[in-house]
Design brief:
The complex is a heterodimer of chains A (573) and B (139).
Chain A: E1 2-4, E2 7-10, H1 14-23, E3 29-33, E4 49-50, H2 61-71, H3 78-98, E5 112-120, E6 125-131, H4 137-151, E7 155-158, E8 160-168, E9 171-179, E10 185-189, E11 192-195, H5 216-223, E12 228-229, E13 234-241, H6 251-254, E14 258-260, H7 268-271, H8 281-293, E15 304-307, H9 313-319, H10 321-331, E16 340-349, E17 353-354, E18 360-362, E19 368-374, E20 379-380, H11 392-412, H12 426-437, H13 444-458, H14 465-482, H15 496-520, H16 538-541, E21 543-548, E22 555-560
Parallel strand pairs in A: 1-10, 2-3, 2-11, 3-7, 11-19, 17-20
Antiparallel strand pairs in A: 4-6, 5-6, 8-9, 9-10, 12-21, 13-16, 14-15, 15-16, 18-19, 21-22
Helix pairs in contact in A: 1-4, 1-11, 2-3, 3-11, 5-15, 13-14, 13-15, 14-15
Chain B: E1 2-9, E2 19-26, H1 33-44, E3 63-66, E4 69-72, E5 86-89, E6 96-98, E7 101-102, H2 105-113, H3 133-138
Parallel strand pairs in B: 1-5
Antiparallel strand pairs in B: 1-2, 3-4, 3-5, 6-7
Classes of the chains: A alpha/beta (573), B alpha+beta (139).
C-alpha cells in the first residue's frame, strides 16, 4: 500500500519524539517505529541528563561545554558542544514543564548529582550537574514525550521496520517499510525524512543495547551513498553486569560507589588521580581491562567489583532503585550487602550519519541531502567527539531533536513532492522472496553470533592492527556466507525470523565500516585505543573520519574538527 | 542444564485451534527465560512468535504467562524453574495474534483515553516548578 505524509520520522525514541512534537503543528507527521514508542531504547537510560542549572553548586555552561569537548578528546565539534551546553537549562525546564518528575533538592528545585567527566572550573573537581528521576530518567522522559505526542494526535506506525530509503538526485522521495503484523511492504511517499533510529550495539556480543538496536537507518544511509562519520568511536560503558552486559548506571559512582580489584585497591586512583571513579567512560573501561589483564580481576577472572555497600539501604532505594533490582534479579546479589561484579559493555556509538547543527544530513563538502535529516545516536553532529560523557546523550536527543524538528519545518515549504517511481518496493519484495525461497543454508543467528564474538575480541576497548585486519577478513567471509543464508519461517505474520535475517545485513555492513575506520586511524583518541599507536596524534589525526560506500569497500576521507574556544591539550583527569 | 519448554502455539489465520509444542533447550542456571526462547527461535524453530526488546525488564515487550503467572521473560531466570517444565502462554484477556503475541491495541487505546499528559491552566514559571519531598511522594 502507498501512504503519504509530509514528514516521516523513523524511530520513536527521545530524538524522534522531540522532533515530531516540533513538526506536528506545522505538517502532517508520521512516526515509524520498530517497537511500540514507549518501548524504544531511550527508555533504558538510567542516570540522568546534564545541565548547568547550578541548583546544588555554582555551575556554568562554559564548564559544561569544556567538559564535553575534553571528554570527547578534542574531536568534538565545539560549535555543537556550545549549543548543547547553552541550551541545556532551557531543555530541562521544558521537560519539567511537560511533567517529567525530576528528583528535588530540599528547597524544591531540581536535584543534581555528580557524573563521570563533569567538572567545576575546567577540570578542578567533580560537579553535581546531572538532573535525574531516580535511576529511570530515560523511562520517564520517554513516557512524558509520548504523552505529548498523544496530546498532539501524531500518527504512529508501530512495529514497522525501515527497509529502504528512496532518494533521487539528492532529494528525498520516500521510504519503504515492512509491517511486522501482516508482512505487508508499504511505500511511504513524503517530502522529508528524519532518521532517529538509534545505535547499533548489537554489532558486539556484550552490550547494554536492546535487540532492536541494529542500526538499520545508519546502514541504509550508507547504502544510499552518504558517508558515515567517526564510526571507529564505540563507547564501552565500564559497568555492565558481568556476563550479561546490562547497564549499571554511572550514577552508582556519582552517588559514591567505588571500583575495586582483587586486592581490594581502589584502582581508579592510579589512573585518574583527580576524578578517580568519576573519570570519563573510555578511561575507566580501559583501567578495568588493564586490571583484569594484570591478573587483578576478582578471583583472577574477567571482572572487577563495584562496591555500593557503604551507601546504605535508603540511598540505594531512593536514588538507585532500578539497578538494585537488576542486581538482585540477575546476580542474586543484594547491593546493600555485597559488591557487584562488573565488566565493560558496548553502550553507545559516537559515530553515525553526519549532520550540520540543524540535523540536515551531509554528503561531501558540507552539501546536504534535500529533505533528509538525522538526530540522536544514529547521527553524528559531532557533539560527543571521540567519547561521549554520561548524561550528554539524553540532552543531545532533546536539544538536537528539537533543533532538527524546527529546521525541518522551516525548510518544508521549499521541499516539493518528488514523484514516486513505479513500484519502488520491488527491490525489497525480491529480496524477501529470495530469502524465503532458499531451502538450505546457514541461519542468520549463527553468523550474527560469530560476528559479535569477532568484534568483541578484536575491536572493543583495546585494538591493534593485526587483530583489526583479521576481524575485517572474518566479517568479509561472514558477508559472503550471508548471501547464502536461509530462514525457517516463510509466513507473513510476525515473521521475526525474516527480520533477523534482514537486520544482519545492516550489522555486518556497519561492522565493516567500524573496522575500516579503526584500522586507518593510527593514533589513540577517546574510545579508540590502538595498542600499536598508544598516543593521541593531533598533528595527523585531529580530524573526522568519513567512510563512503563503494563496490570495493568503504572509501575513507577526512574533514577538519570545528575548534572555537578550547585548544587541544593533553587529557588528564 | 536441560530445560523442557511447553509453548502455546496458534496462528489464527491457518489454524482453528491452538496447540502446545515442546522444546528442549540446554541453558545455564543464570540465563533468562528469554535467552531460552531466543535459542529455540534462532536454533530450532524460526516460526515461533513472541515480542522482545530491551532484555532487562524496562520496555515490557516480553510480557507473557510463565507457569501460570504473568511475568517478563527477561526477568525470570532458568534457576527459578529448576526441575520443572516451563509452560509459556500469551497474556490472558487479550486477543491472540500469533503464538505468544497478543493484540495490545485495546491497551494502548486505554492509555490514550487516560490522556497521559499534564493538563494545567497555569502558565509555567521561567524555571522549574518548586516541589517538596511530600508532593513528590504523592506522585
Amino acid at each position: 500500500m502507498n501512504l503519504k505524509h509530509d514528514v516521516v520520522i523513523v524511530g520513536a525514541g527521545l530524538a524522534g519524539l522531540r522532533a515530531a512534537l516540533e513538526a506536528a503543528e506545522h505538517a502532517d507527521v508520521a512516526l515509524l517505529s520498530k517497537v511500540f514508542p514507549t518501548r524504544s531504547h531511550s527508555g533504558a537510560a538510567q542516570g540522568g541528563i546534564a545541565a548547568a542549572l547550578g541548583n546544588e553548586e555554582q555551575d556554568s555552561w562554559e564548564w559544561h561545554m569544556y567538559d564535553t569537548v575534553k571528554g570527547g578528546d578534542f574531536l568534538t565539534d565545539q560549535d555543537a558542544a556550545e549549543i548543547l551546553a547553552k541550551d541545556a537549562p532551557r531543555a530541562i525546564y521544558e521537560l519539567e514543564h511537560m511533567g517529567v518528575p525530576f528528583n528535588r533538592t530540599a528547597d524544591g528545585t531540581i536535584a543534581q548529582r555528580a557524573f563521570g567527566g563533569h567538572t567545576r572550573d575546567f577540570g578542578q573537581s567533580s560537579i553535581k550537574r546531572t538532573c535525574h528521576a531516580t535511576d529511570r530518567t530515560g523511562r520517564v522522559i520517554l513516557d512524558t514525550l509520548y504523552g505529548e505526542a498523544l496530546r498532539k494526535g501524531i500518527r504512529v506506525y508501530a512495529e514497522f521496520h525501515l527497509l529502504d530509503l528512496l532518494i533521487k538526485e539528492n532529494r528525498v522521495v520516500g521510504l519503504v517499510a515492512y509491517e511486522l503484523a501482516t508482512g505487508d511492504v508499504h511505500v511511504f511517499h513524503c517530502r522529508a525524512i528524519l532518521l532517529a533510529t538509534g545505535g547499533f550495539g548489537k554489532v558486539f556480543k556484550t552490550t547494554s543495547n536492546c535487540f532492536a538496536n541494529t542500526g538499520d537507518g545508519v546502514y541504509l544511509a550508507y547504502k544510499a551513498g552518504i558517508p558515515l562519520e567517526d564510526m571507529e568511536f564505540v563507547q564501552f560503558h565500564p559497568t555492565g553486569i558481568y556476563g550479561l552486559g546490562v547497564l549499571i548506571s554511572e550514577a552508582t559512582r556519582g552517588e559514591g560507589g567505588i571500583l575495586h580489584n582483587s586486592t581490594g585497591d581502589r584502582f581508579m586512583e592510579a589512573y585518574a588521580p583527580t576524578l578517580k571513579d568519576l573519570a570519563p567512560r573510555d578511561l575507566v573501561s580501559r583501567a578495568i581491562t588493564q586490571e583484569i589483564r594484570a591478573g587483578r580481576g576478582i578471583g583472577g577472572r574477567d571482572f572487577v567489583h563495584l562496591d555500593l555497600t557503604h551507601l546504605g539501604k535508603e540511598r540505594l532505594q531512593e536514588k538507585l532503585s532500578d539497578i538494585s533490582s537488576f542486581v538482585r534479579i540477575y546476580l542474586g546479589i543484594d547491593p546493600v550487602k555485597e559488591p557487584i561484579p562488573v565488566q565493560p559493555t558496548c553502550h553507545y556509538m559516537m559515530g553515525g550519519i553526519p549532520t550540520n547543527l540543524d540535523g540536515q544530513v551531509l554528503v561531501e563538502n558540507q552539501d546536504i541531502v534535500h529533505g533528509l535529516y538525522a538526530a540522536g545516536e544514529c547521527a553524528c553532529v559531532s557533539v560527543h567527539g571521540a567519547n561521549r560523557l554520561g548524561c550528554n546523550s539524553l540532552l543531545d536527543l532533546v536539544v538536537f531533536g528539537r533543533r532538527t524538528g524546527k529546521k525541518l519545518v522551516q525548510n518544508l515549504q521549499g521541499l516539493h513532492w518528488i514523484p514516486l517511481q513505479d513500484h519502488p518496493e520491488e527491490r525489497i519484495l525480491e529480496r524477501i522472496q529470495h530469502l524465503k525461497g532458499r531451502k538450505t543454508g546457514e541461519k542468520a543467528a549463527a553468523l550474527r553470533a560469530v560476528m559479535q564474538d569477532v568484534m568483541m575480541k578484536y575491536c572493543s576497548v583495546f585494538r591493534q592492527e593485526e587483530g583489526l585486519s583479521r576481524a575485517r577478513e572474518e566479517i568479509k567471509s561472514l558477508t559472503d556466507r550471508y548471501r547464502e543464508i536461509t530462514i525457517d519461517n516463510r509466513g507473513s505474520r510476525f515473521n521475526t525470523d525474516l527480520l533477523d535475517a534482514l537486520e544482519l545485513e545492516s550489522l555486518l555492513g556497519l561492522a565493516d565500516v567500524i573496522l575500516a575506520s579503526a584500522i586507518a586511524r593510527k593514533e589513540s583518541r577517546g574510545a579508540h585505543f590502538r595498542e600499536d599507536y598508544p598516543v593521541r596524534d593531533d598533528k595527523n589525526w585531529l580530524k573526522h573520519t568519513l567512510a563512503q560506500r563503494t563496490d570495493d569497500g568503504p572509501r575513507l576521507f577526512y574533514k577538519p574538527v570545528m575548534i572555537t574556544k578550547f585548544t587541544p591539550k593533553p587529557r588528564v583527569y | 542444564m536441560e530445560m523442557n519448554f511447553k509453548i502455546f502455539r496458534f496462528d489464527p489465520e491457518v489454524e482453528r485451534k491452538p496447540h502446545y509444542q515442546t522444546y528442549r533447550v540446554s541453558a545455564h542456571p543464570t540465563e533468562r527465560i528469554l535467552d531460552c526462547l531466543n535459542r529455540i527461535r534462532w536454533e530450532q524453530d524460526g516460526t515461533l512468535g513472541y515480542r522482545m526488546s530491551c532484555g532487562h525488564g524496562v520496555c515490557g515487550s516480553d510480557a507473557m504467562k510463565i507457569n501460570g503467572h504473568c511475568a517478563l521473560a527477561c526477568q525470570k531466570l532458568v534457576r527459578d524453574y529448576q526441575g520443572q517444565e516451563v509452560v509459556l502462554e500469551p497474556l490472558p484477556s487479550f486477543k491472540i495474534l500469533k503464538d505468544l503475541i497478543v493484540d495490545l491495541e485495546p491497551f494502548f487505546e486505554k492509555v490514550r483515553l487516560m490522556r497521559p499528559y499534564l493538563i494545567s491552566s497555569i502558565e509555567p514559571p521561567e524555571k522549574e516548578r518548586r516541589q517538596c519531598a511530600q508532593q513528590i511522594i504523592l506522585i
